[in-house]
Amino acid sequence: MKSWFDVICCRSSKSILGSHNENTYRLLLEFLIEESSNSNERIVNFLITRIINIQKQSEPVPDDFPKNFSFLEYAILNLDLLFADVDFKEHYIKNGREEGRLFSIK
Question: Is the pTM of this model over 0.85?
Answer without folding.
Answer: no
